[in-house]
Amino acid sequence: MAKYALVTGSGRGIGFGIAKRLTEDGYHVYTTDYDQRLATAAADKLGGTPLQLNVSDPESVREAASQVPELGLLVNSAGIYPFSALLEIPLEQFQRVFGVNVGGNLWCMQAFHPQLKADGRGAIVNITSMSALVPAVGVGSYAASKAAAAMLTAQAAIEFAPDGIRVNAVAPGSVQTEGTNRAINDGDEPDKAPLIPLGRLASPEDIASVVSFLASKDARYVTGQNIVVDGGYLNNTFALYRQAAHGDPNAIVGGRAQ
Ligand SMILES: NC(=O)c1ccc[n+]([C@@H]2O[C@H](COP(=O)([O-])OP(=O)(O)OC[C@H]3O[C@@H](n4cnc5c(N)ncnc54)[C@H](O)[C@@H]3O)[C@@H](O)[C@H]2O)c1
Questions:
Q1: Ligand 1 pocket: which of 8, 60, 81, 178 to mutate (most atoms <8 Å of CB)?
Q2: Model pTM above 0.90
């Protein structure tokens, strides 16, 4: 029997990595993106079905949902991260970040709920961030939006459980995508690899394999969780402190490439 999955923001980056893994797992994947060309290129590569949608617009999401008769898995990966200092966040940026990163998850969970319920074993995976768990200077409203998305995940898990739908989140650390590579090369973001105990940034495949598990029968008793996939980075805060406070080179315990 055909299994159907839909991944938002799967035109590139982590979303594309997830769509690719789910295709390998045997799903027919709806590759959806704000950018129609990216959605179509991803579908051509994977043999999926492209759909254009803007997750922050409930009408656009409902229109896309009307073209999806069956769905067993929804992955909300579309997200934006315009960073700035709190004192400099303009209203438009705040509304856009919450509109995509929080509203996007909500509108998609609402619109695809009927198909997921009809499946009888539906699953939703939201891509949050390690920023949902720790603050950082200069990430603007991104961290607050991801914390809200993690709570939305927990809330939906309880509300949708009677419908047989499990809802979880994956919270990536730093993931190597075109966007992060550019930010590191431009000097906008430090290269965190030396501070990551597992010695490297995540690949989209590292995130996709956890999504694959959460979607699978093996995760049948897991719901409402926000699973951190960061190579041990967040737990390494004492090393970060020693490095910052004392310049102790031995504080860095990462660097062992996997
Ligand atoms: N890259 C990282 O290091 C990292 C770390 C933690 C969490 N994340 C999260 O992972 C997710 C994917 O990140 P990425 O690095 O792959 O991003 P990306 O910018 O490479 O890709 C995001 C995709 O989402 C699409 N998109 C943006 N706004 C949209 C909208 N309103 N409607 C539909 N599609 C839209 C974009 O067109 C793009 O194709 C995001 O939610 C991000 O917050 C990323």
A1: 81
A2: yes
Confidence of residue 252 (pLDDT cuts 50, 70, 90): low
Give me the mean pLDDT over the 160-171 stretch: 98
Does the domain at 3-251 match CATH 1.10.101.10? Answer given as no
Q: Where are the domains of the chain?
A: 3-251
From 4, 142, 192, 233, active-site residue: 142
- The strand ranges marked E within 63-120 are 73-76
Classify burial at 26, counting beta carbons within 10 Å of its beta carbon; exposed 0-12, middle 13-18, buried 19 or more.
Answer: exposed
Is the separation of the CB atoms in 168 and 219 below 8 Å?
yes
Dihedral, 83, 88, 90, 91 alpha carbons, nearest 10? 100
Q: 45 pLDDT exceeds 80?
A: yes
